[in-house]
Amino acid sequence: MHDPGHLLFRRALRVAIVLPLAYLLTEYVLKMPYGSTYTVFGTFVLLSFADFGGPTRDRARAYIVTGLAGLVAIILGTFAALNPIAAVVCTFIVGAGLTYSGLLRGYVATATMAILLPFVIAVTAGPGLDQLPQRLAGFVVAIVVSLAAALLMWPSHTRSALRQRVADAMDASANVIRAMWPPSDSSGGPAIDLQTRQRELTEAHHRMREQFDGQLMRPGSATSRDRALLQTIDELGRMRIILRWEPGSGDYKMPGDEGLARCSAEAMSSSADAIGRGGEAPHSKALDHLREEHRLELQKWSQEQLSEGNSQIVRPTLDAGFHLRLTAAMAELIARHTRIAVGAPAEEHPFGGWGLPSVDKEPSPLRILRNHLTFRSPWFRNSLRAGLALALAVSVVYLTGVGHGFWVVLGTLTALRLDVLGTGKTAVQAILGTIGGFAVGTVLILLLGNTPWALWILLPIAIFLSGFTPGAISLTVGQGSFTVFVIVFYGIVAGPSLETGEWRVVDVGIGLAISLIVSLMMWPRGVATRVNESLIASVHASTAYLVAAYERLANGPSSDKQLEAAATAADAAVSNAYESFDLAIAQRGSGQELGPTWSFVANAAGHISACADLVVFLATVGSNPTAGSNTGELLVTCAKQVQASADAATDNLCPSLTEKQTQDYCNRQAFTSEQFEQPQVSGLGNTFAQLETQVDTCLADWQTGAATPSDDPVGQRALVLVWAEEWLIHLMWVTSRIEAATTADSGSASLMPIESDKATA
After folding, report:
1. What is the CA radius of gyration of the chain?
2. What residues are paired with 743 via a beta bridge?
3. Closest listed residue to residue 235, CA positions, set 160, 357, 333
4. DSSP codes, 574-606
5. pLDDT tens, residue by residue, 425-471
6. What's the rounded Cα separation, in Å, for the pair 83 and 80?
7. Using CA atoms, how far apart are residues 240 and 320, in angstroms rounded to an integer?
8. 241 phi/psi in degrees, rounded to 5
9. Please, are residues 509 and 368 in contact by the beta-carbon 8 Å criterion?
10. What are phi and psi of 357, to 5 degrees?
């Protein structure tokens, strides 16, 4: 039995208490026999499937909006039922559309079943315009009682296990920061083992990803809080990458380094306290102020050193500051996302974080949905499968005239999974549970059929088990409990009869058969075998965006159109990769061995794209630091070298594998955190050496003109130039991590040779 925090128990108990009262109100007080079905099943689905979390105001608004959408669905289903063809077509559109809307996640995904069920009941009930007022009124009762119960009966939710894992990763990141930049007054205390702290961070990050990956209802873009939590998790992945990188910084330090490191660690710790332990929302203004002061300090110092002819010490000092500033920027972003994730208002930052993006601007849902309008998108394909399956189920209902036809549709929904193997397994569990429930219900009807009061006593018990057992025990037991529930309920409504149970078994069996047929017809292998393809595409698109960003830095605004197109393509490809990975983990189970590799490559693609964003910002500040030399050309050439290396490393994944090859691929994988323990990138090649020489030449040339007017600060030019080079070195290091993640145990040979894919293509 699995019920952390007794959440399922409380939810099931709530619906067991409320649902019978709602039925009594509709049937006997309001006297609406045609509305009672919508009251009963509406209440059940609203309280069991649409149990919204978050603040009271947001939960209330979510229930109201979902209820209104359910009313629209009833109207649509009732009118569609006037014509069988219209019913089938409308079911396809509604089923596919609601499934596709799951991309937005958050409240939108949670509300899907609560909107779909009343539509299904209405569209399978046949013509009934005269019943429409009662149907709507019955569902209104369900909305009112569900809203009251959700807000008044055990409204508090246990703190999310995911949020606790996020907090643990934040704490571990703070510890690594303290170990990397220890305070100057800690020399007398015990030494902080950096490697130990990094290992703890890796373990905490893996626990967070295990909790997060593969959860189809994971936080997404539907609400600002959900979006902020998702972005926090993404930023923690990038923070881990940064804190694994140990550049050779030497002994060059600035006076502000210690304060910036300390404030960064404090920001991570306060974020962990807020999101995992209910503490005060973190504040990032102080860190933003220190970052700006640190930049101005570096800029002023560079200006002074260049004016004094000390160009040889500028580079190592700026190199040392780059890693710290990168860490501080990530810490500030995480703190800002955390504030919104815990419901606090976004803070205004007077300095703007020198290129940090805004975190309080909602992304466009239309853009999210548009990015996946392609057959390559797993969400788009899955929505088509769901729409076709539901439409086929409705067709069978109209052609056969089976009793309680909406159970056929629900049976289809119950079993339909991302691949045929998952669908078949679920179908077996569902039919066994339904038959078992029919057997139990038959015994109960035979024993208690003539005593209505006994059925009323059994009703809340059956409701409780229907709400509790699917999540706490198994789908089989859950289907059996729900079957007993409908037998008891219809025994109260229409008198004790075995016919209800018989129709239940027949209808569910038909629905399961439909789900199997559709799974065999449309993408039977699901998405797992296509994850590699989407990951390869995401890295290729991200590196192409990176090259475009450096071309913008080197050539100026003339390349803005190309840059915008590359940024859009990278955003869409990275989003598709994350979704493919997420759905594949859900299809195969989080325990598959390939998950860490998929996770790292997906995060690496997102990291490369984020780095390109920051390079674009560097290209927009101050004057062009590459003007009058071939430095810009060398930067672009090195960016293309990063692109070639990252693309080649990712190509080890192989885009298309057979089912057996994919399984072999998973079984052979031996990816562990130790593969990240390799030394930093060295021997980057002649091109990088030429770039280093050219940067040094630029710094030396600027010595004579260091005392330039304020509108052309040579110190800022030095920052932009050196950090543009540092981004490339950092990303070459990330590329080496990709190669480690996509190669065999030896760390050299491909896990699955590309030739084998060509042979089976």
Report:
1. 30
2. 750
3. 333
4. HHHHHHHHHHHHHHH-TT-TTHHHHHHHHHHHH
5. 889 999 999 999 999 988 988 887 678 888 899 999 999 999 999 88
6. 6
7. 18
8. -60, -45
9. no
10. -70, 160
* Length reported for the chain: 761
| Residue 655 confidence class, pLDDT cut points 50, 70, 90 | low
Kindly state the average pLDDT of the residues 112-136: 93
Nearest to 150 by CA among 246, 22, 271, 63: 63
- Which of 138, 328, 348 has its CA nearest to residue 243? 328
Residue 375, phi then psi, degrees to nearest 5: -65, -15
- Matching residue, tokens 């220890």: 182
Rounded to the nearest angstrom, the gap between the alpha carbon of residue 513 and the centroid of all alpha carbons in its chain is: 32
Is there a contact between 478 and 511 (Cβ–Cβ < 8 Å)? no
Phi/psi-derived region of residue 556, left when phi > 0, alpha when psi is between -120 and 50, beta in every other case: left
What one-letter code names the amino acid at 316?
Answer: P
In degrees and rounded to multiples of 5, residue 750 shows phi and psi of -65, 140
**Structure tokens that stand for 724 in this block:** 């543009």
Between the alpha carbon of residue 72 and those of residues 61, 138, 139, 142, 479, the distances in Å are 17, 13, 11, 15, 29
- What residue type is assigned to position 454 of the chain? A
Token duo for residue 25: 């109100």
Residues 215-235: what's their mean pLDDT? 69
Q: What span, in angstroms and rounded, lies between the C-alpha atoms of 68 and 47? A: 16
List the structure tokens of 362: 């909602």
Token pair, residue 396, equals 């069978």
Is residue 114 within 8 Å of 45, Cβ to Cβ? yes
Collect all residues with Cβ–Cβ distance below 8 Å to 299 and sequence separation of at least 6.
713, 715, 716, 718, 719
Q: At which residue do the structure tokens 């689905």 appear?
A: 45
Contacts of 309 (CB under 8 A, 6+ apart): 703
Give the Cβ contact number of residue 558 at 10 Å.
10
Q: How many CB atoms lie within 10 A of CB 268?
A: 29
Residue 510 Cα to chain centre, angstroms: 34
Query: Are the beta carbons of 270 and 283 closer than 8 angstroms?
Result: yes
Rounded Cα distance between 10 and 156, Å, is 10
Q: Is 729 helix (H, G, I), strand (E, B) or coil?
A: helix
Report how far apart, in Å, the C-alpha atoms of 253 and of each of 181, 260, 276, 566 are.
Answer: 11, 12, 34, 37
For residue 312, give the nearest of 302, 322, 320 by alpha carbon: 302
Query: What is the DSSP secondary structure assignment for residue 25, as one 8-state letter?
Result: I
CA angle 655, 568, 336 (to 5 degrees): 105
Q: What is the rounded distance in angstroms from the CA atom of residue 14 to the CA atom of residue 651?
A: 52
Please give the single-letter amino acid code of residue 501: G
Q: How far apart are CA 16 and CA 428, in angstroms?
A: 28
CA dist 37 and 27 (Å) reads 9
Backbone angles phi and psi of 512, in degrees to 5? -65, -40
The mean per-residue pLDDT over the stretch 667-672 comes to: 38
Residue 76's closest CA among 61, 66, 91? 91
Residues 478-511: pLDDT tens digits? 999 999 999 999 888 887 777 888 888 999 999 9
- Backbone φ and ψ for 199, nearest 5 degrees, come out as -65, -40
Contact between residue 528 and residue 588 where contact means Cβ atoms under 8 Å apart: yes
Minimal CA–CA distance to 632: which of 556, 711, 541?
556
